[in-house]
């Protein structure tokens, strides 16, 4: 479990000389073209001998899973390939049953956020049943960045997105291989890139995000995401660009231990994603720019933090020291990026009934008494 350090009250201090960073228990991050070839040695270095693969239906139709199975060889104990969007609990229950029936002592998740989070839920459930934690190696093929956190979201029997959190759920190793990512469709790839951008920008004003290394790496990630997402859209087969984007995504949500939502854009995304079948990346395409505009107007400190991203995206402030205007310029740049990537979407396109603003806002904020309720309702209303 995460240890809370009560004596240090340093979160929220924007200072390069004072802060508090709680390291994540990630042991290995291996990146580069062909990095997947290290998988078997990673399994062994973690002290495991048999790996159970968790992945999704679409990726199973590509050569990726067969390649992973081949690399594992005799260390391959089984594969579950029925994880769907937003990690539905029915599929996770099946994965748990098959994992328990196998001889596996480590999980290997391959794909986007749903398989990675599903593997976390399998590990969490197994621990609850046996008292034993099962480690995970994550092999991401999208830019959603579920692999760096202790949190996992899944869709319950009522169709609502719920979550679990424990430091033991952080994958022990992450493999970033751009060659595997070539099999990810370009719309899924670029929209999850907006999800990564959502992480990086909302972490700038997250109360638990330290200046070093989280915000500094996030700013560099913002630069690369703005530069390489359009390049990847223009040339989807460019494996070097895909590799650079995987690394940028890692920097966008550099491993640190936190609980709860990253920010308001994420909260809205969780509220509409599973309920209406909207992909995670697309929810960020809809909500990020409006939330940044709201933050620019409603919080001087948030505006100051968002404004820091402006030079990283090749823009100049209209007036020195006008953080509010600079933050709005960042939001405008996000909206422009979404448009240029062909990712502009609206809730009505996903058959979200009109008049659901309050229900969505309450679901996202998890309280009808939340101080941001009215603002959230206004933002959601604008997403139709």
Automatic annotation (TrEMBL):
PROSITE patterns: ADH_IRON_2. Keywords: Oxidoreductase. GO terms for cellular component: mitochondrion. It comes from the Eukaryota. GO terms for molecular function: alcohol dehydrogenase (NAD+) activity; metal ion binding. The keyword Transcription regulation does not apply. SUPFAM superfamilies: Dehydroquinate synthase-like. Transmembrane segments: none annotated. Residues 191-365 form the Fe-containing alcohol dehydrogenase-like C-terminal domain. Residues 28-177 form the Alcohol dehydrogenase iron-type/glycerol dehydrogenase GldA domain. This is Alcohol dehydrogenase. It comes from Lineolata rhizophorae.
């Amino acid at each position: 479990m995460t240890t809370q350090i009560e004596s240090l009250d340093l979160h929220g201090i924007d200072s390069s000389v004072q802060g508090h960073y709680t390291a994540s228990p990630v042991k290995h991050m291996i990146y580069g073209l062909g990095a997947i070839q290290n998988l078997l040695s990673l399994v062994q270095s973690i002290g495991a001998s048999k790996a159970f693969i968790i992945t999704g239906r679409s990726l199973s139709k590509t050569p990726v899973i067969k390649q992973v199975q081949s690399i594992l060889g005799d260390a391959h104990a089984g594969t579950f390939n029925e994880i769907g969007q937003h990690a539905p609990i029915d599929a996770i229950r099946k994965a748990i049953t098959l994992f328990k029936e196998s001889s596996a002592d480590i999980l290997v998740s391959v794909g986007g956020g749903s398989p990675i989070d599903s593997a976390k839920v399998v590990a969490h459930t197994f621990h609850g049943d046996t008292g034993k934690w099962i480690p995970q190696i994550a092999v991401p093929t999208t830019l959603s960045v579920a692999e760096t956190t202790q949190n996992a979201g899944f869709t319950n029997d009522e169709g609502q997105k719920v979550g679990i959190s424990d430091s033991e759920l952080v994958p022990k190793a992450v493999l970033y291989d751009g060659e595997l990512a070539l099999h990810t469709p370009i719309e899924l790839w670029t929209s999850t890139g907006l999800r990564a951008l959502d992480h990086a920008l909302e972490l700038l004003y997250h109360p638990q995000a330290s200046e070093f290394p989280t915000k500094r790496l996030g700013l560099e990630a913002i630069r690369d995401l703005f530069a390489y997402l359009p390049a990847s859209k223009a040339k989807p087969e460019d494996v070097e660009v895909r590799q650079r984007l995987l690394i940028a995504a890692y920097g966008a949500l550099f491993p640190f231990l936190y609980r709860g939502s990253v920010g308001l854009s994420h909260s809205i995304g969780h509220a509409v994603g599973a309920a209406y079948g909207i992909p995670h990346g697309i929810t960020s395409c809809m909500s990020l720019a409006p939330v940044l505009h709201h933050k620019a107007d409603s919080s001087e400190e948030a505006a100051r933090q968002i404004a820091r991203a402006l030079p990283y995206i090749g823009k100049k402030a209209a007036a020195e020291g006008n953080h509010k205007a600079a933050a709005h310029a960042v939001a405008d740049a996000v909206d422009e990026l979404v448009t240029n990537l062909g990712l502009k979407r609206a809730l009505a396109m996903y058959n979200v009934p009109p008049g659901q603003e309050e229900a969505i806002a309450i679901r996202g904020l998890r309280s009808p008494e939340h101080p941001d309720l009215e603002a959230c309702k206004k933002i959601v209303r604008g997403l139709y």
